[in-house]
Amino acid sequence: MTTEVRVPALPESISDGVVAGWHKQPGDAIRRDEALVDIETDKVVLEVPAPEDGVLEKILTAAGDTVVADQVIGLIGAGDGTRPAATPAPAGEDVKPRAARALGPAARKLVADHQLDPDRLTGTGSNGRVTKADVLAYIGRQEESGRGEGAAPVEKPEVAPRPVRELPGLPEIEEDRPQKRVPMSRLRARVAERLLQATRNTAMLTTFNEVNMQPVMQLREKYRESFERQHGVRLGFMSFFVRAAAEALKRHPDINASIDGDDIVYHGFCDIGVAISTERGLVVPVLRNAEYMSLAEIETDIRELAAKARENRLTMEDITGGTFSITNGGVFGSMLSTPILNPPQSAILGMHKIQERPVAENGALVIRPIMYLALTYDHRIVDGRSAVTFLVSIKELLEDPASMLLDL
Fold it and tell me: Which of 3, 110, 270, 344 could form a disulfide with 135 if both were Cys (CB 3.0 to 4.6 A apart)?
Protein backbone atom coordinates (compact mmCIF):
# COMPACT_ATOMS: atom_id res chain seq x y z
CA MET A 1 0.00 0.00 0.00
CA THR A 2 1.30 3.44 -0.94
CA THR A 3 0.69 6.52 1.21
CA GLU A 4 0.84 10.00 -0.30
CA VAL A 5 2.82 12.79 1.34
CA ARG A 6 0.89 16.03 0.85
CA VAL A 7 1.60 19.68 1.53
CA PRO A 8 -0.37 20.67 4.66
CA ALA A 9 -3.05 23.33 4.61
CA LEU A 10 -1.48 26.78 4.33
CA PRO A 11 -2.75 29.86 6.20
CA GLU A 12 -5.23 32.04 4.35
CA SER A 13 -2.67 34.74 3.59
CA ILE A 14 -0.20 32.28 2.00
CA SER A 15 -0.88 30.85 -1.46
CA ASP A 16 2.16 28.61 -1.95
CA GLY A 17 5.53 27.58 -0.58
CA VAL A 18 8.92 26.27 -1.67
CA VAL A 19 10.47 22.90 -0.79
CA ALA A 20 13.41 23.87 1.42
CA GLY A 21 14.82 20.35 1.69
CA TRP A 22 14.09 16.71 2.42
CA HIS A 23 15.20 15.05 5.66
CA LYS A 24 15.00 11.62 4.00
CA GLN A 25 15.96 10.12 0.66
CA PRO A 26 14.26 7.38 -1.40
CA GLY A 27 14.80 4.01 0.25
CA ASP A 28 15.10 5.44 3.78
CA ALA A 29 12.93 3.89 6.47
CA ILE A 30 10.70 6.41 8.24
CA ARG A 31 8.41 6.45 11.25
CA ARG A 32 5.07 8.16 11.65
CA ASP A 33 5.38 11.84 12.70
CA GLU A 34 9.13 11.85 11.93
CA ALA A 35 10.27 15.08 10.20
CA LEU A 36 10.20 14.37 6.48
CA VAL A 37 10.44 17.61 4.51
CA ASP A 38 10.52 21.37 5.13
CA ILE A 39 8.24 23.77 3.21
CA GLU A 40 9.40 27.39 3.25
CA THR A 41 6.70 30.04 2.99
CA ASP A 42 7.10 33.81 2.94
CA LYS A 43 6.63 33.85 6.74
CA VAL A 44 7.62 30.56 8.35
CA VAL A 45 9.17 27.17 7.58
CA LEU A 46 6.64 24.34 7.92
CA GLU A 47 8.03 20.97 8.97
CA VAL A 48 5.96 18.23 7.35
CA PRO A 49 5.86 14.97 9.37
CA ALA A 50 5.59 11.49 7.88
CA PRO A 51 1.93 10.41 7.84
CA GLU A 52 2.73 6.69 8.31
CA ASP A 53 5.51 4.21 9.06
CA GLY A 54 7.17 2.84 5.99
CA VAL A 55 9.86 3.44 3.40
CA LEU A 56 10.17 6.59 1.31
CA GLU A 57 9.59 5.30 -2.21
CA LYS A 58 9.68 8.45 -4.30
CA ILE A 59 10.24 12.19 -4.01
CA LEU A 60 8.08 14.11 -6.48
CA THR A 61 9.34 17.64 -5.76
CA ALA A 62 12.97 18.66 -5.39
CA ALA A 63 14.41 21.38 -3.20
CA GLY A 64 13.50 24.76 -4.66
CA ASP A 65 10.25 23.62 -6.29
CA THR A 66 7.12 25.68 -5.65
CA VAL A 67 4.22 23.75 -4.13
CA VAL A 68 0.64 24.50 -3.07
CA ALA A 69 -1.60 23.19 -0.32
CA ASP A 70 -2.62 19.52 -0.58
CA GLN A 71 -0.16 18.87 -3.42
CA VAL A 72 1.34 15.34 -3.44
CA ILE A 73 5.10 15.71 -3.01
CA GLY A 74 6.19 12.17 -2.13
CA LEU A 75 5.16 8.52 -1.79
CA ILE A 76 5.66 6.17 1.16
CA GLY A 77 5.64 2.41 0.67
CA ALA A 78 4.80 -0.33 3.14
CA GLY A 79 7.23 -1.04 5.95
CA ASP A 80 7.53 -0.99 9.73
CA GLY A 81 9.64 2.16 9.89
CA THR A 82 12.76 0.34 11.05
CA ARG A 83 16.04 0.63 9.25
CA PRO A 84 17.45 -2.49 7.56
CA ALA A 85 20.36 -4.17 9.29
CA ALA A 86 23.69 -2.81 8.17
CA THR A 87 25.75 -4.99 5.86
CA PRO A 88 28.91 -6.17 7.66
CA ALA A 89 32.00 -4.46 6.38
CA PRO A 90 34.76 -6.58 4.84
CA ALA A 91 37.42 -7.75 7.30
CA GLY A 92 40.17 -5.28 7.89
CA GLU A 93 38.08 -2.20 7.04
CA ASP A 94 37.34 0.40 9.67
CA VAL A 95 33.67 0.96 10.27
CA LYS A 96 32.50 4.37 11.39
CA PRO A 97 29.01 4.63 12.88
CA ARG A 98 26.70 6.62 10.65
CA ALA A 99 24.82 9.17 12.74
CA ALA A 100 21.87 11.19 11.55
CA ARG A 101 22.89 14.81 11.21
CA ALA A 102 20.67 17.77 12.03
CA LEU A 103 20.78 20.25 9.16
CA GLY A 104 18.99 23.56 8.76
CA PRO A 105 16.95 24.13 5.57
CA ALA A 106 19.65 26.26 3.93
CA ALA A 107 22.32 23.70 4.80
CA ARG A 108 20.20 20.83 3.46
CA LYS A 109 19.71 22.62 0.13
CA LEU A 110 23.47 23.19 -0.23
CA VAL A 111 24.17 19.55 0.61
CA ALA A 112 21.67 18.42 -2.03
CA ASP A 113 22.93 20.87 -4.67
CA HIS A 114 26.56 19.81 -4.20
CA GLN A 115 25.75 16.11 -3.58
CA LEU A 116 27.65 16.05 -0.29
CA ASP A 117 27.67 13.37 2.38
CA PRO A 118 26.12 14.95 5.51
CA ASP A 119 28.11 12.62 7.77
CA ARG A 120 31.33 14.29 6.66
CA LEU A 121 30.17 17.70 7.88
CA THR A 122 31.00 19.15 11.27
CA GLY A 123 28.19 21.11 12.88
CA THR A 124 28.90 24.24 14.90
CA GLY A 125 25.26 25.12 15.63
CA SER A 126 23.26 24.31 18.74
CA ASN A 127 23.32 20.58 19.60
CA GLY A 128 25.73 19.93 16.74
CA ARG A 129 23.35 21.31 14.09
CA VAL A 130 25.00 21.80 10.71
CA THR A 131 24.53 25.36 9.51
CA LYS A 132 24.84 26.93 6.06
CA ALA A 133 28.21 28.37 7.11
CA ASP A 134 29.47 24.87 8.00
CA VAL A 135 28.57 23.55 4.53
CA LEU A 136 30.16 26.53 2.78
CA ALA A 137 33.32 26.08 4.84
CA TYR A 138 33.45 22.39 3.90
CA ILE A 139 32.98 23.19 0.21
CA GLY A 140 35.73 25.79 0.46
CA ARG A 141 38.13 23.27 1.98
CA GLN A 142 37.31 20.78 -0.79
CA GLU A 143 37.97 23.40 -3.45
CA GLU A 144 41.26 24.40 -1.84
CA SER A 145 42.41 20.79 -1.79
CA GLY A 146 41.46 20.51 -5.47
CA ARG A 147 39.26 17.48 -4.97
CA GLY A 148 35.61 16.56 -4.34
CA GLU A 149 34.26 13.71 -2.26
CA GLY A 150 35.95 10.48 -3.34
CA ALA A 151 37.70 12.16 -6.26
CA ALA A 152 41.37 11.91 -7.07
CA PRO A 153 43.53 15.01 -6.73
CA VAL A 154 43.12 17.32 -9.68
CA GLU A 155 45.96 19.41 -11.00
CA LYS A 156 44.88 22.93 -11.61
CA PRO A 157 45.68 24.11 -15.13
CA GLU A 158 47.73 27.18 -15.63
CA VAL A 159 45.56 30.25 -15.91
CA ALA A 160 46.41 32.88 -18.43
CA PRO A 161 46.84 36.41 -17.09
CA ARG A 162 43.53 38.17 -16.80
CA PRO A 163 42.92 40.76 -19.51
CA VAL A 164 42.99 44.36 -18.43
CA ARG A 165 41.55 47.44 -19.95
CA GLU A 166 43.36 50.76 -20.01
CA LEU A 167 41.41 53.98 -19.67
CA PRO A 168 43.07 57.41 -19.85
CA GLY A 169 43.71 58.79 -16.38
CA LEU A 170 42.31 55.71 -14.60
CA PRO A 171 43.99 52.67 -13.05
CA GLU A 172 43.86 49.35 -14.88
CA ILE A 173 40.48 47.62 -14.55
CA GLU A 174 40.38 43.83 -14.41
CA GLU A 175 37.74 42.36 -16.69
CA ASP A 176 37.50 39.14 -14.65
CA ARG A 177 35.67 40.42 -11.57
CA PRO A 178 33.59 37.65 -9.94
CA GLN A 179 30.01 38.17 -8.90
CA LYS A 180 27.25 35.90 -7.69
CA ARG A 181 23.53 35.96 -8.45
CA VAL A 182 21.17 34.09 -6.12
CA PRO A 183 17.36 34.12 -5.99
CA MET A 184 15.84 36.18 -3.20
CA SER A 185 14.46 33.99 -0.42
CA ARG A 186 10.71 34.04 0.08
CA LEU A 187 11.14 35.60 3.51
CA ARG A 188 13.40 38.33 2.14
CA ALA A 189 10.97 38.96 -0.73
CA ARG A 190 8.07 39.21 1.72
CA VAL A 191 10.01 41.63 3.95
CA ALA A 192 10.84 43.76 0.91
CA GLU A 193 7.19 43.77 -0.15
CA ARG A 194 6.00 44.85 3.29
CA LEU A 195 8.62 47.58 3.57
CA LEU A 196 7.57 49.03 0.23
CA GLN A 197 3.94 48.73 1.27
CA ALA A 198 4.65 50.65 4.47
CA THR A 199 6.56 53.34 2.55
CA ARG A 200 3.82 53.80 -0.05
CA ASN A 201 0.68 53.42 2.05
CA THR A 202 1.48 55.14 5.35
CA ALA A 203 2.45 58.66 6.39
CA MET A 204 5.58 57.73 8.34
CA LEU A 205 7.25 60.22 10.62
CA THR A 206 9.94 59.62 13.26
CA THR A 207 10.50 61.39 16.57
CA PHE A 208 13.58 60.97 18.76
CA ASN A 209 14.54 61.18 22.40
CA GLU A 210 17.31 59.95 24.66
CA VAL A 211 17.17 57.95 27.86
CA ASN A 212 19.63 57.70 30.75
CA MET A 213 20.08 53.95 31.16
CA GLN A 214 21.99 54.16 34.43
CA PRO A 215 18.98 53.32 36.69
CA VAL A 216 18.13 50.22 34.65
CA MET A 217 21.79 49.17 34.50
CA GLN A 218 22.19 49.56 38.26
CA LEU A 219 19.03 47.53 38.88
CA ARG A 220 20.24 44.78 36.55
CA GLU A 221 23.66 44.69 38.16
CA LYS A 222 22.19 44.47 41.67
CA TYR A 223 19.73 41.65 40.95
CA ARG A 224 21.35 39.91 37.97
CA GLU A 225 22.57 36.78 39.78
CA SER A 226 19.55 36.33 42.07
CA PHE A 227 17.18 36.87 39.13
CA GLU A 228 18.91 34.19 37.08
CA ARG A 229 18.96 31.74 40.00
CA GLN A 230 15.28 32.31 40.71
CA HIS A 231 13.94 32.27 37.16
CA GLY A 232 16.60 30.40 35.16
CA VAL A 233 16.89 33.16 32.57
CA ARG A 234 19.19 36.15 32.10
CA LEU A 235 17.85 39.62 32.92
CA GLY A 236 18.29 41.66 29.75
CA PHE A 237 17.35 45.15 28.62
CA MET A 238 14.54 44.08 26.31
CA SER A 239 12.22 43.07 29.16
CA PHE A 240 12.41 46.59 30.60
CA PHE A 241 11.59 48.11 27.21
CA VAL A 242 8.67 45.73 26.68
CA ARG A 243 7.26 46.57 30.12
CA ALA A 244 7.75 50.30 29.53
CA ALA A 245 6.15 50.09 26.07
CA ALA A 246 3.14 48.16 27.42
CA GLU A 247 2.59 50.75 30.15
CA ALA A 248 2.98 53.64 27.69
CA LEU A 249 0.54 51.97 25.26
CA LYS A 250 -2.11 51.88 27.98
CA ARG A 251 -1.64 55.62 28.48
CA HIS A 252 -1.68 56.38 24.73
CA PRO A 253 -4.26 54.11 23.04
CA ASP A 254 -3.83 55.74 19.61
CA ILE A 255 -0.30 54.32 19.46
CA ASN A 256 -1.83 50.89 20.06
CA ALA A 257 -4.25 51.23 17.14
CA SER A 258 -4.42 50.33 13.46
CA ILE A 259 -6.35 51.37 10.36
CA ASP A 260 -8.83 48.92 8.84
CA GLY A 261 -10.36 50.43 5.72
CA ASP A 262 -12.09 53.64 6.85
CA ASP A 263 -12.06 52.60 10.51
CA ILE A 264 -9.53 52.96 13.32
CA VAL A 265 -9.27 49.86 15.50
CA TYR A 266 -8.17 50.55 19.09
CA HIS A 267 -6.75 47.42 20.69
CA GLY A 268 -7.49 46.80 24.36
CA PHE A 269 -4.45 44.53 24.70
CA CYS A 270 -0.72 44.89 24.11
CA ASP A 271 0.65 42.25 21.73
CA ILE A 272 4.22 43.45 21.29
CA GLY A 273 6.42 42.12 18.49
CA VAL A 274 10.17 41.87 19.09
CA ALA A 275 12.36 41.87 15.96
CA ILE A 276 14.83 38.97 15.79
CA SER A 277 17.56 38.56 13.17
CA THR A 278 18.04 35.07 11.69
CA GLU A 279 19.97 33.51 8.82
CA ARG A 280 16.81 33.69 6.69
CA GLY A 281 16.15 37.34 7.51
CA LEU A 282 14.26 39.45 10.04
CA VAL A 283 11.24 37.98 11.82
CA VAL A 284 9.02 39.60 14.45
CA PRO A 285 7.48 37.07 16.86
CA VAL A 286 4.80 38.44 19.18
CA LEU A 287 4.51 38.54 22.98
CA ARG A 288 0.79 38.18 23.73
CA ASN A 289 -0.78 40.34 26.47
CA ALA A 290 2.58 41.85 27.39
CA GLU A 291 0.85 44.25 29.80
CA TYR A 292 0.30 41.35 32.20
CA MET A 293 3.75 39.79 31.91
CA SER A 294 6.53 39.96 34.50
CA LEU A 295 10.14 40.63 33.53
CA ALA A 296 10.91 36.93 33.97
CA GLU A 297 8.01 35.89 31.73
CA ILE A 298 9.08 38.37 29.06
CA GLU A 299 12.70 37.18 29.10
CA THR A 300 11.64 33.51 29.02
CA ASP A 301 9.27 34.02 26.09
CA ILE A 302 11.82 36.07 24.14
CA ARG A 303 14.46 33.37 24.60
CA GLU A 304 12.08 30.63 23.47
CA LEU A 305 10.86 32.62 20.46
CA ALA A 306 14.43 33.51 19.45
CA ALA A 307 15.42 29.83 19.59
CA LYS A 308 12.39 28.86 17.49
CA ALA A 309 13.18 31.62 14.98
CA ARG A 310 16.80 30.53 14.51
CA GLU A 311 15.77 26.88 14.18
CA ASN A 312 12.94 27.72 11.73
CA ARG A 313 10.27 26.43 14.13
CA LEU A 314 8.09 29.54 14.36
CA THR A 315 4.40 29.03 13.67
CA MET A 316 1.97 31.46 12.07
CA GLU A 317 0.49 32.13 15.51
CA ASP A 318 3.93 33.21 16.75
CA ILE A 319 4.32 36.00 14.17
CA THR A 320 0.84 37.36 13.46
CA GLY A 321 -1.46 39.81 15.21
CA GLY A 322 0.98 42.21 16.88
CA THR A 323 -0.22 45.70 17.84
CA PHE A 324 3.20 47.34 18.37
CA SER A 325 6.82 46.44 17.57
CA ILE A 326 10.27 46.97 19.08
CA THR A 327 13.53 46.62 17.16
CA ASN A 328 17.02 46.77 18.68
CA GLY A 329 19.68 47.92 16.24
CA GLY A 330 21.97 48.60 19.18
CA VAL A 331 23.04 44.96 19.34
CA PHE A 332 24.75 45.52 15.98
CA GLY A 333 26.27 48.87 17.01
CA SER A 334 23.67 51.22 15.53
CA MET A 335 23.75 54.66 17.15
CA LEU A 336 20.63 56.08 15.51
CA SER A 337 18.11 54.94 12.90
CA THR A 338 14.56 55.47 11.67
CA PRO A 339 12.73 52.13 11.83
CA ILE A 340 10.04 51.34 9.26
CA LEU A 341 6.50 50.52 10.33
CA ASN A 342 5.23 46.96 10.46
CA PRO A 343 1.74 47.35 8.88
CA PRO A 344 -1.00 47.56 9.97
CA GLN A 345 0.56 48.72 13.25
CA SER A 346 0.69 52.46 13.81
CA ALA A 347 4.10 52.70 15.51
CA ILE A 348 7.45 50.97 16.07
CA LEU A 349 10.11 51.71 18.71
CA GLY A 350 13.80 51.62 17.80
CA MET A 351 16.46 50.94 20.45
CA HIS A 352 20.12 51.76 19.88
CA LYS A 353 23.59 51.31 21.33
CA ILE A 354 24.20 52.49 24.89
CA GLN A 355 27.04 55.00 24.84
CA GLU A 356 28.61 56.99 27.68
CA ARG A 357 28.06 60.70 27.04
CA PRO A 358 28.55 63.96 28.93
CA VAL A 359 25.22 65.34 30.14
CA ALA A 360 24.23 68.24 32.38
CA GLU A 361 22.51 67.34 35.68
CA ASN A 362 21.65 70.04 38.22
CA GLY A 363 24.14 72.41 36.64
CA ALA A 364 26.99 69.89 36.70
CA LEU A 365 28.56 67.95 33.85
CA VAL A 366 28.45 64.19 34.40
CA ILE A 367 28.99 61.05 32.33
CA ARG A 368 25.95 58.85 31.85
CA PRO A 369 25.14 55.75 29.71
CA ILE A 370 22.77 57.20 27.12
CA MET A 371 20.63 55.48 24.52
CA TYR A 372 18.88 57.25 21.68
CA LEU A 373 15.28 56.15 21.11
CA ALA A 374 13.36 56.49 17.85
CA LEU A 375 9.61 56.17 17.42
CA THR A 376 8.31 55.89 13.86
CA TYR A 377 4.56 56.37 13.66
CA ASP A 378 1.74 56.62 11.13
CA HIS A 379 0.79 60.30 11.07
CA ARG A 380 -2.62 59.43 9.61
CA ILE A 381 -3.86 58.27 13.01
CA VAL A 382 -1.15 59.42 15.44
CA ASP A 383 -0.63 63.12 16.07
CA GLY A 384 2.84 64.49 16.71
CA ARG A 385 1.91 65.46 20.26
CA SER A 386 0.80 61.94 21.09
CA ALA A 387 3.94 60.39 19.57
CA VAL A 388 6.24 62.73 21.48
CA THR A 389 4.46 62.24 24.81
CA PHE A 390 4.44 58.46 24.27
CA LEU A 391 8.22 58.48 23.82
CA VAL A 392 8.60 60.75 26.86
CA SER A 393 6.52 58.26 28.87
CA ILE A 394 8.92 55.45 27.91
CA LYS A 395 11.89 57.65 28.84
CA GLU A 396 10.42 58.46 32.26
CA LEU A 397 9.53 54.82 32.99
CA LEU A 398 13.03 53.62 32.13
CA GLU A 399 14.73 56.36 34.11
CA ASP A 400 12.61 55.40 37.16
CA PRO A 401 12.13 51.62 36.71
CA ALA A 402 10.96 51.16 40.32
CA SER A 403 7.79 53.14 39.62
CA MET A 404 7.11 50.98 36.55
CA LEU A 405 7.67 47.71 38.40
CA LEU A 406 5.55 48.88 41.36
CA ASP A 407 2.77 50.03 38.99
CA LEU A 408 2.88 53.61 40.30
Answer: 110
